[in-house]
Each structure stands twice: as C-alpha cells, then as structure tokens.
Design a protein that fits this description.
By secondary structure, the protein is mainly alpha-helical. Helix content is 78%, strand content 0%. The protein has one domain.
Length: 161
C-alpha cells in the first residue's frame, strides 16, 4: 500500500494535471457511493412497507393496503431515479460539464438527501406502530422526489437544455 502511494506521488510530480485528474475521479467515486447509500436506504424502506401489506390486506393492521402499495411503488421509483441520476462530475470529453459552483451545490443537495432517506426509512419502520404516520411518510416521499428533480435539473441546465 505504501509503495502504491509513492508511485502515485511520483506520477503527480511527473505528469501535469494528474493530481486534478485523480481528485476528479475521487469526486466521481464519492458521488457514486452517496447515491448507492441513498438507493439502499430507499430499497430498505420499500422492503419494510411491503412486509406490512399481507397484514393490511387481512385487516390485521389499520393501514390502507392500496396506499401501502402506492408508497412501495413510489419508493421503488425514487430508488431507481437516484441510482440512475447523473454523476456529480463529468469527464473531459463528457457532454455534461459540472462546474465548481454547481459541484458545491450538488454536494449540498446530496447532503440533504441522506437525512431525508434516513427519515423515510425510520418512518416506514414506525408505521406498524402508528398508522397516523402514513401521511408524514407520503409527504417525505413527495419532498424527496422534488429534491431529486432539483438535483437532476442542475444537469439539464449544464447541457443547455
């Protein structure tokens, strides 16, 4: 490991721009890790909601089964949108260029998405005990959808479209 670091340090001094390239690759990797985390949290919440459906259909839980199905579908959709969302850094030849100011804004949006997804999972877990949380869960899901749209809108404006 130490030997690999020494080689990278030498490359940084020998090749102009290598350090910037490496930093951009790290930004891309960080963005991918955040999006994967968000995806997993939403899939966990979807799984929790789906576990309630049999009891809701049988009347053992005071939850509306069709509303649970809608929530599970929306969680699946949000997870897919996050996973397929454009990355936070475009390479030199990529069509979409994300400037420094946009990257800072993107990081702020992503930072807000983490507690939002954690909150959705927490509400989903509490739903069995408190059916009144269904409306709170729906609101948080809708708000997250809006935030994902805002994140993706940054890339549309970067394209000029």
């Amino acid at each position: 490991m130490t030997q690999d670091l020494k080689i990278l340090e030498k490359l940084e001094t020998w090749i102009p721009g290598f350090r910037g390239y490496k930093q951009k690759e790290l930004l891309r990797e960080d963005d991918r890790l955040v999006r994967n985390y968000l995806y997993r949290r939403l899939k966990d919440a979807e799984g929790v909601v789906k576990t309630y459906m049999p009891d809701a259909f049988d009347g053992k839980l005071p939850l509306n089964a069709s509303e649970l199905q809608g929530i599970a579908k929306d969680l699946d959709s949000l997870g897919t949108r996050i996973r397929a969302a454009p990355g936070g850094y475009g390479g030199y030849f990529d069509r979409v260029k994300v400037e420094e100011a946009e990257l800072t804004k993107l990081k702020q949006l992503d930072a807000a998405l983490v507690p939002a997804c954690d909150g959705i999972l927490a509400l989903a877990r509490e739903l069995r005990k408190n059916a009144a949380l269904m409306s709170d869960l729906r609101e948080k899901i809708d708000a997250l959808g809006f935030d994902i749209d805002a994140r993706n809108e940054m890339f549309k404006s970067s394209r000029g479209g």
